[in-house]
Each structure stands twice: as structure tokens, then as C-alpha cells.
Write a structure and sequence with these properties.
There is one protein chain. This protein has 563 residues and is α/β, with parallel strands linked by helices. Among the domains are: 155 residues, Rossmann fold, CATH 3.40.50.980; 100 residues, GMP Synthetase, Chain A, domain 3. It is 30% helix and 23% strand. It is globular and about 70 Å long.
Length: 563
């Protein structure tokens, strides 16, 4: 594309382009942050705070352990399998500082999923929470992992409180299944033994892999996206540039980190952007505990919160949330899945702060588009391409479609991955003319704002018409009696596919007839669900994204259709 119409819609303070080489590597960025913000709080979890100076010291200790005791070399891979606890940033930044490539691993993975990721990545070491160690025991011998470090939730809290937390988790709540990993080292012992070791700063090129970030697997086999130091630095500069209208101040912000740090959205924004701003990140270990989450929010004059639609919706429906002090909030950003209009409007009503919907993918570090953080914010849109990002909409033949027409969103920019780990064919298929093919169907307006219609692979074909689940889900969740909805296509003899909606009730009195009547009033005939099924919950990813693929697989196992 020769023109960038979205630049005309940029807020005045946002640059059109950024310098992706402002830091040669993430190591340089971290060292800069540690130096500038040494005495400020970096992280807080369960009432325990850690300053940037302490984070600097302890991440250096862990880096020296990897170098001296494990003999890991730059480019070797280490898997991190933990929820949001204080150990996570220490291990993460320590690995980065040693030049080791990080493999973020979902703690909720099954042994089968763990085996795939560890084997595919070739990880030589893993840091894992004790709660999940039994799963590791099951598959360890079938993986290349040579070194295992086990930690417990309270390890970094320390003192009597840390001991009590570990005792309660293990003995009272019985959350740590028995495991036998005789060669494993404890995190506490590792940090003690490496305290006097010498850290040797590696020379890391900008194209060195900072992490192998595995795709969510919502549409197939999970693949490792190679995200380089330059990719990550670029996205941080892009997002930082976008924050120019939000009145964020260095060293004064408080981030709420409920999304897990192993997810690319939180990894970039809540770990690295937070460090770049000298902000404090409040780690929420179990965001599904809404009572505890709201209690934590009530203690913090928080200024910045990230989440997905289901998280924002969950908070809005949590007792006590409306009474939390939201007066300090400057930024609320939603990503990971479509932000529903009903949720956006209710959030603004309750908190007084709009949610800016953004968009990105694992393969793009992740941010590609964000809504302006001012009065130009547009509900129902993913906003504008961020600085140094080029976006086009292509048809099935790879030709650019006119503004206002549907096409596959394809992106080019310094934040786009260099490819999939050990998958050259998949890498080649994912690019066209230098643009990464996102698999999402979108419409770009003449002023540059973009609307996602749906996942290309999740479109439902009804009598030759494309039906987009997002649209129908938005319609259904606008009902007061509905909490959540997931829409899939099922076989149909007459129309190829039929629309089926799975609905979670907010009000037990909700009936199928009410849902049907609402859809009849708001949707054209071919878009209306043929089937309504009520369910207590919907299958979700680790960050709360509704997994339509799983929903469909389960449905087809349990039901038979003519078609």
C-alpha cells in the first residue's frame, strides 16, 4: 500500500514511525530500566513488594545460575511454567539477561500438550510450579529437558508469610499432587547457591530469538513463533508511542496484571512496557477468584488495566466491583478476543473509563492495532494500525479489496515474527508479498479504522452466505438475562451449515423462546440460530477466550445432525 489513511486519524502526539533499534536488545532495555527506577516498586503479589533494584539483583543471580551451573548457552531454550507469582519476572528477566530463549508454557497444559511444546522447542530446562510437577513427571523422560527447577507459590514472598502460603496451598487446599522428580532443584536452593556466582553479560544480536511463543492452538496444532529481541523492542516502542495521549507518568503508574505473564499480551504490556515506564505491576495469581480479585483492586489506586472481554465482563458481574475506587484509572485496554459492545458500555458506565480495544497476535509480538486513547475511541473497532505498521485487506486471490469491503487482514511491520520454529512450510504459507496473513476477516473504513468481522476459519456457511459468530454472539449477550454466548456452525442437509448458539444464563428464568425472539428481532433470517443450547460454562483458553473449536468438537461428539 502506498498510502496510510490511518495517519490522518492519529492523535497529534502519536508518531507515524518508531525506531525499532533504539535498544540493541531487551537486555539493554532492562538494564536501562533497572538503572532509572531502582528504588521504585516493580512488582507486588499477595502483599509482598519487590523493587526494581531487587529485581535487577535477583534476575542477575538467576542468569548467573543458568550460565555457570547449568552451562546454558545463548540460544538454548528454557521453559517457564508458572502463573503470576513474583518468581516469574525474576526467572523471565534472568533468562533474557543470559541470552536464553524463553518458552512460555501454560501451567494448565495437559501432559500431552507439555510434551509437544517441550519436544518441539527443544527446551533444555524448565522452571515449574510444584502444583503442576506431577504432569511433568509423567512425560519428562520423553522430552529433551535436562534440568528441572521446582518452585512453590510462596517462595518469593519469603519469611513466615511465604511458609504459611506454601503450607496452606499444599496441606490445606491439597493443590499440589504428589510427584517424584529426584533430579529436580528447588527454586530457593538455586537462588541461594548462585548468589555469589559471576554474571557474564552476553552480546546478543537484535535478530536473536528472545522467545518461542506458542500459538494458542485454537485453530489447530500449536506452533512456536520466533519473536526476536528486535521484534519485542519494536512493539514496545510502538505501544509506548501510542500511549502519548494517556497522561501516563514515568515511575507513577500501577498496572493490574490479571492476564498471565506467559500470554504474549501480558508479556509485552504488563512485563516489558511496565518496566519501560517504571510502573508497579500488581500480579493477580488467580483472576478466576473474583472475590479475591475485587478485594485486591480495592487496595490499589490502580491506573492501568489490561484484560479480555470475559475478564472485564466477569469483573462487572462480581459483587463489590462497582464500589471499588476507579478514579485513578487512566487506561483500560482489551485484547485477545472481540470486545462486546454491551461490555464496553457497561464498563464505561461503572468505572467512568472507556475500554480501548486493541488487536494483535502471537506472531506480531502482539500489538498491531489499538484504538486512540482519547475521544476518538470507537466501540466495535480495533482502532488504527500502530506506528510503523502497514495493514491491507486481501481477498482469496491475494488482491487488495476496496475500503469498506471484507478481506483477510494482513500485516507488515518490525514487530512481525521472523517465522515459525522449525516449520519453514508453515512460515511460507503464512506470508503473502511480505505481509503476514492473520486469518481474521476485517473491514477498513476510509479513515483507517478497522473492524474485525471474524476468524476466517470460524465462518459459518449458511446457504452460500457467510455468517460471522461474533455478530450473533454480540446480539445474544446484549440480553440482560445472558452472561455469555458461543456460536458455532453445525452440519445441515439443506443449508450446508446451521447456526447453533451455546448460552450461559445470567438469569435462570431465560428461555429458548426468548433468545429466539431476540435474534428474530435483530438478525436477518440466515443469521438466526437454528439451535439454542444452555450450558453452565463455555470452554475457554488460558486468558478467557472462548474456544469455538473445542465447543464445536464437543458438540459433534454429543449430537448428530442431518447433513
Amino acid at each position: 500500500m502506498s498510502t496510510f489513511p490511518w495517519h490522518a486519524s492519529y492523535p497529534a502526539s502519536v508518531p507515524h514511525d518508531i525506531n525499532p533499534d533504539v535498544y540493541p536488545s531487551l537486555i539493554d532495555l532492562l538494564e536501562d530500566c533497572f538503572r532509572k527506577f531502582a528504588d521504585l516498586d516493580a512488582y507486588e503479589n499477595m502483599g509482598k513488594c519487590m523493587t526494581y533494584r531487587q529485581l535487577d539483583e535477583q534476575s542477575r543471580v538467576f542468569a548467573s545460575f543458568l550460565q555457570n551451573e547449568l552451562k546454558l548457552q545463548p540460544g538454548d531454550r528454557i521453559a517457564i511454567q508458572m502463573p503470576n507469582v513474583l518468581q516469574f519476572p525474576i526467572v523471565l528477566f534472568g533468562a533474557i539477561r543470559a541470552g536464553i530463549t524463553v518458552v512460555n508454557t501454560n501451567p494448565l497444559y495437559t501432559p500431552t500438550e507439555m510434551r509437544h511444546q517441550f519436544n518441539d522447542s527443544g527446551a533444555k530446562a524448565v522452571v515449574i510450579l510444584a502444583n503442576f510437577a506431577a504432569n511433568l513427571e509423567e512425560i519428562l523422560k520423553e522430552t529433551p529437558i535436562e534440568h528441572v527447577i521446582v518452585t512453590e507459590i510462596g517462595d518469593q514472598i519469603g519469611g513466615l508469610k511465604g511458609m504459611i502460603v506454601n503450607f496452606v496451598v499444599k496441606r490445606i487446599k491439597k493443590m499440589v499432587p504428589a510427584y517424584n522428580l529426584p533430579t529436580a532443584r528447588s527454586y530457593k536452593d538455586v537462588m541461594k547457591s548462585a548468589k555469589e556466582a559471576t554474571y557474564k553479560r552476553p552480546q546478543i544480536a537484535s535478530d536473536h530469538n528472545a522467545l518461542l511463543q506458542y500459538t494458542g492452538g485454537t485453530t489447530g496444532v500449536s506452533k512456536g513463533a520466533m519473536l526476536t529481541h528486535r521484534n519485542m523492542v519494536a512493539n514496545l516502542e510502538q505501544v509506548s508511542g501510542w500511549m502519548g495521549t494517556s497522561n501516563l507518568e514515568l515511575g507513577k503508574e500501577i498496572f493490574i496484571t490479571a492476564l498471565p505473564l506467559y500470554h504474549i499480551f501480558a508479556f509485552t504490556v504488563n512485563a516489558f512496557l511496565c518496566a519501560k515506564l517504571g510502573a508497579k505491576s500488581v500480579l493477580i495469581t488467580n483472576p478466576r477468584d473474583m472475590k479475591g480479585f475485587v478485594k485486591e483492586l480495592s487496595k490499589q489506586p490502580y491506573t492501568f488495566i489490561t484484560g479480555v472481554n470475559t475478564l472485564f465482563n466477569g469483573l462487572l458481574n462480581a459483587p463489590g466491583f462497582a464500589h471499588v475506587d476507579h478514579s485513578h484509572v487512566k487506561v483500560a485496554i482489551a485484547g485477545g478476543m472481540a470486545l462486546q459492545r454491551f461490555v464496553a458500555e457497561k464498563w464505561k458506565e461503572v468505572t467512568g473509563v472507556p475500554v480501548a480495544e486493541g488487536y494483535g497476535l502471537t506472531e506480531t509480538s502482539p500489538v498491531l492495532c489499538v484504538n486512540p486513547l482519547n475521544e476518538q475511541m470507537r466501540i466495535g473497532s480495533i482502532g488504527l494500525p500502530i506506528p510503523s505498521t502497514d495493514i491491507v485487506m486481501l481477498d482469496d486471490d491475494g488482491k487488495e479489496v476496496p475500503h469498506g469491503e471484507k478481506g483477510e487482514l494482513c500485516a507488515k511491520g518490525p514487530q512481525v515474527m521472523k517465522g515459525y520454529w522449525n516449520r519453514p512450510e508453515d512460515t511460507e504459507k503464512s506470508f503473502i508479498n511480505g505481509y503476514f496473513k492473520t486469518g481474521d476477516i476485517a473491514i477498513q473504513e476510509p479513515d483507517g479504522f478497522i473492524r474485525i468481522v471474524d476468524r476466517k476459519k470460524e465462518m459459518i456457511l449458511v446457504s452460500g452466505f457467510n455468517v460471522y459468530p461474533n455478530e450473533i454472539e454480540d446480539c445474544i449477550v446484549s440480553m440482560d438475562k445472558v452472561l455469555e454466548a458461543g456460536v458455532i456452525g453445525v452440519p445441515d442437509a439443506k443449508s450446508t451449515e446451521a447456526v447453533k448458539a451455546y448460552v450461559v444464563k445470567a438469569d435462570p428464568s431465560l428461555t429458548e423462546e426468548e433468545v429466539m425472539a431476540h435474534c428474530k428481532e435483530n438478525l436477518t433470517g440466515y443469521k438466526r440460530p437454528k439451535y439454542i443450547a444452555f450450558t453452565k460454562e463455555l470452554p475457554k483458553s488460558n486468558v478467557g477466550k472462548i474456544m469455538r473449536r473445542i465447543l464445536k468438537e464437543n458438540d459433534l461428539k454429543e449430537n448428530t445432525y442431518e447433513g
